[in-house]
Amino acid sequence: MEYFKKILRFAKPYRKYGYLNIFFNILYALFSALSFAALIPMLDVLFTPEKKVLKEPVYTDLGHLKDYLQEYISYRVTAYSGDDQMKGLILVIGLVLVLFLLKNLFNYLAMYFITFLRNGVLKDIRNSMYKKIVNLPISFYSEKRKGDVIARITSDVLEIQHSFLSILELIVREPLTIVFTILIMFGISTKLTLFVFIFIPVAGMIISRIGKSLKKKSDKVQKEQGELLSIVEETLGGLRVIKAFNSESRFYKAFSNSTLRFFQFSNKLLNRQNLASPTGEFLGILVIGVLLWFGGKMVLVEKTLDAASFIAYMGLAYNILTPAKAISKASFGVKKGNAAAERVLEILETENPIVEKPTAITKDAFTEGITIENVSFKYQDEYVLKNFNLQVPKGHTVALVGQSGSGKSTIANLVTRFYDVNEGEIKIDGIPIKDFSKKSLRGLMGLVTQDSILFNDTVKNNIALGKENATEEEVIAAAKIANAHEFISELPDGYNTNIGDSGNKLSGGQKQRLSIARAVLKNPPIMILDEATSALDTESERLVQDALEKMMQNRTSIVIAHRLSTIQNANSIVVLQRGEIVEQGSHQELLATNGVYKKLVTMQSFEP
User: Fold this and answer.
1) Are 458 and 495 in contact (CB under 8 A)?
2) Among 69, 137, 171, 283, which lies 20 to 30 A Cα-Cα from 526?
3) Helix axes 164-188, 85-135, angle to 10 degrees
């Protein structure tokens, strides 16, 4: 129930619907019991004429309330029908219809109001999960498969709605229906009702044994669903490579193995769950059978119970079966829902290691420069950067070069605070970046990465991502600086053309120029370029490089470069090896030293 309580906190904004549901469920439970109890005096009047009440009874005290109500209804039926028994029958039918109509009306109203609570909780859980997914650091997703995260926000949340939140419908209605029914059963025959209670705990124990393993089986189903979605997500993302390497059969085998496991786990889970309903129903009918024997004996042999009361009593006993089955089913739902809630809460309760201070400051201007002081950092066990120091004065372009794995991209990740340093400090204008709010820090920066990350939207909306309410003129001006206006104008709908999933309707160079236009429109004082031209052909590189040079004018830039031809005009070039600076200086100075940089230039067949 611990998970249920945690999920229930999402119901607070919708508690008024919960109260209305409780109110109408109380009425439903009351009328559910009364609809059967009302049959007793009517059956007496219709089938036992000697029990007709000709004189209006007088109310004495609460202890005789049951006898008073029974006699009063008998009196009213007698007074209405007189000697015509058909009149009494019509009254009986009319009263029963009214009671059942009210019972079902209150049931509908109870379900009507709980719908707003259930769907509201579902909406808020999904919103909270999405907010958490966006806020969690990039390092979190290096350990989690995207498909598994998608499964948690979709199928697991739905499972919570079907299991946990269905209990909210039953939590008042079914127990109260049972309570009211049992009270009336006690009123009819205490002896018979106590006899019933011998069988209820036995039935409960049998049903609870069935449900014990449901959480474990449900957990396997949900984990396998995450695995299945991960394979689909990877397949769609790498379809070009899968086809090129004729690996369709390999991925199909992995997918079919996952669906086979899902099939087997689901069968075990559902068959165990399906066992609950027939078992519960059989046990209920068994109780009814025993009641018929014991109660029939009281009517026919002992003469301690009249026939009308016994018929109504059997109706009430059967009336307990439906809510008892519903409660039994809901208890299985809780066990199933526990596994889903655990997976959802694992995301919601994950601590974000990139913590923002309560006193975090907002900084809009950039005046002095960036300082990286004695920074050491590791992703796992081995340090990627060791005692790293770097000054980037305002207005300067600093290029980071080196072989793959030397720590170049890590510096971009640390300056933008996608990761926090293990040792040392990064400062902007002399203030540690941990003192800034994350929004303020990243507001000072523009990022152009090697992989052009674009979204399934229009050209205009992709460029305007970093600036809400950007005008069309601003978008066009940014596109012109990025050398993108010409090809955008040739698209079918110009700036309103949808570029497809990940911008796949465009070429690599076009996608990169859109990324640059996006950074230009944001107009940040600090620009970080992470190998922005390394994936491009020569013609595209020339256009993109021209766009980058226009963009970097009068800005502070950190350029991570693979192609050394693109950074010869940088104020300072920093050469990295295994997380440490081995050389630093201008292009000409580094060539003159005839060291690592000269070797890299020679390897790329670049002539200065």
Assistant:
1) yes
2) 137
3) 150
Question: In the chain, which residues fall in CATH 3.40.50.300?
Answer: 355-444+556-608
Half-sphere exposure of 13 (CA within 13 A, CB side): 11
33 vs 36: CA distance, rounded Å: 6
The model's pLDDT over 126-164, given as tens digits with 9 standing for 90+, comes to 899 888 888 888 777 777 777 788 888 888 888 887 776
Instruction: For residue 467, give every residue at least 6 positions away whose Cβ sits within 8 Å of its Cβ, in sequence order, or none.
Output: 474, 521, 522, 523
434 within 8 A of 414, measured Cβ to Cβ = no
Closest CA to 555 of 583, 529, 534, 587: 529
User: In angstroms, rounded to a whole number, what is the distance separating the alpha carbons of residues 411 and 530?
Assistant: 10
Domain spanning 2-346, CATH architecture: Up-down Bundle (1.20)
What region does 500 belong to: left with phi over 0, alpha with psi -120 to 50, or beta? left
Residue 361: Cβ within 10 Å count: 11
338 burial (CB, 10 Å; 0-12 / 13-18 / 19+) is: buried
Fold of 355-444+556-608: Rossmann fold (3.40.50)
Please enumerate in sequence order all residues whose Cβ is within 8 A of that of 452, keeping only pairs 6 or more positions apart, or say none.
503, 508, 511, 512, 514, 515
- Give 246-257 pLDDT, tens digit per residue: 778 888 888 888
Cα–Cα dist 502/345, whole Å: 30
User: Which tokens is 423 given?
Assistant: 């040792």
Q: Which tokens go with 467?
A: 């600036």
